[in-house]
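Case study 2.
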Amino acid sequence: MTSVAMKRLSLLLVSISLLCVSGRAQTYRGMVDVAPALELQEEFYASGNSMDSYGYDGVAFAMAVSTTHGVQLSRQHYVGIGTEFCRRLDISDWEELGSIPVYAMWRMDFFGRKITPFFDVRAGYQVAKANGFYGNINGGVRFNLTGRTGLNVSLGVRIRRVEAGTGNWIKSAYSSWRDDYGRVLVRQYAFGFLMRIGVDF
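Prediction:
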C-alpha cells in the first residue's frame, strides 16, 4: 500500500470513529453476510515475449464473506467499517490467495419497518495479494426477525483487484531447458455481479 493511500484510508477511519463517539441517538450495529458472485475478468494470451488481451471474456464463480461494524446514526442512516474475504472457486483459478479489502460503508434503510428496502455503498482499499481500489453497491430488502436482528437479501455490483495467470504456458526466457515453462501473472480489475445474504444485529 502506498503512503498516500494509507493516509487517505487512515483519515477515513478516523472520521468514521469520530462519528461513532459524537452526536446523539447512535447505537452500535454489526452485520455479517455471504456473497456468491459471477465475475468478469480480462483474459490474456502470452506467447514468447508478447502478451495480448482477449477483452473481458473470462467468467468465474466467486464467494465472499464480509463483516461490518458501525453505528446507526438515525432510523434510516448507518455508517461503519468492515472487511471482506473473497476468492474464486473455479478449478482453473490461479488466484491462489483470496483478496482482503478494508472498506467504509454507508447504508440507508428507507422506511424502518418490519420489511423495508435498503441501499448501501462500500468503498475501500484491498490490502492483500493484489492491492487496489475496492467498490460495491447493493440494493435489497431487510426482513425484521427480532427487535435488533434482521435478515438482509440484496443484489449488487462489485469491482476488485485480482492476480491471475495468462491463458497459456510460455517458455521461460531465463532457461536453456525446453521443458521449463512458467506463467505470466497479471494484476487487473474484475467486475462482479453478486447476491448478498446476511444478518444484522
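Strands lie at 27-47, 50-72, 77-88, 101-109, 115-126, 132-144, 150-165, 170-171, 181-182, 185-200.
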